[in-house]
Specification:
This protein has five helices and eight strands; from the N terminus they run E-E-H-H-E-H-H-E-E-H-E-E-E. By secondary structure, it is of the alpha+beta class. Strands 3-5-4 form a three-stranded antiparallel β-sheet. A three-stranded antiparallel β-sheet has the order 6-7-8, with no helix packed on it.
């Protein structure tokens, strides 16, 4: 993603044709956000495999993403949690455990009681300007070493950290 904003300035001057004096001057400054970067569709199964998420959590993740709002949050009311548990044919405690595992994998971030943020590097909905701001809360680092090979570290502004060594 190109992180620099583009600034454009337009200046218009109206000149009195008789005297040659500038009668008025108008300046317009326009700031444009970077364009959305090219993307390739990634499937949830592949993402879960890359993040080491067990297949049992994939269905839960799909159900949760159906509730993703335009601010990047998933809000779970007691009624919606029960509906998800019923659709998945799991108990509430199992569902809670799965939420915890998705948070540890940094796919979701617990924001408050029954509210989760989806990692905007993986899932986003809404305007690109908003998604850019949401992505600032998450940082992905890749480190190479002879001993451990490739290590992925994902950090969020909430000091939620998960490392996955491949």
């Amino acid at each position: 993603m190109h992180s620099r904003k583009i600034h454009t300035q337009h200046t218009s001057t109206v000149t009195d044709l008789v005297t040659g004096e500038a009668v008025s001057k108008t300046e317009n400054k326009v700031s444009r956000l970077p364009v959305e970067p090219p993307y390739i569709k990634m499937y949830i199964n592949d993402l879960c495999d890359l993040k080491g998420v067990p297949s049992a959590l994939k269905s839960t993740l799909i159900e949760l993403l159906r509730k993703l709002d335009y601010e990047g949050f998933i809000t779970l009311s007691p009624r919606s949690r029960k509906a998800i548990c019923d659709r998945l044919d799991i108990k509430d405690q199992t569902f809670r455990n799965q939420l915890t595992r998705l948070c540890k994998a940094n796919i979701l971030l617990r924001e408050g009681t029954n509210e989760y943020a989806a990692n905007p590097s993986y899932f986003a909905r809404g305007e690109w300007k908003t998604i850019i701001e949401q992505r600032k809360a998450f940082e992905l680092k890749i480190r190479y070493s002879a001993e451990k090979g490739r290590e992925f570290t994902t950090e969020s502004s909430k000091d939620n950290q998960q490392e996955l060594a491949l």
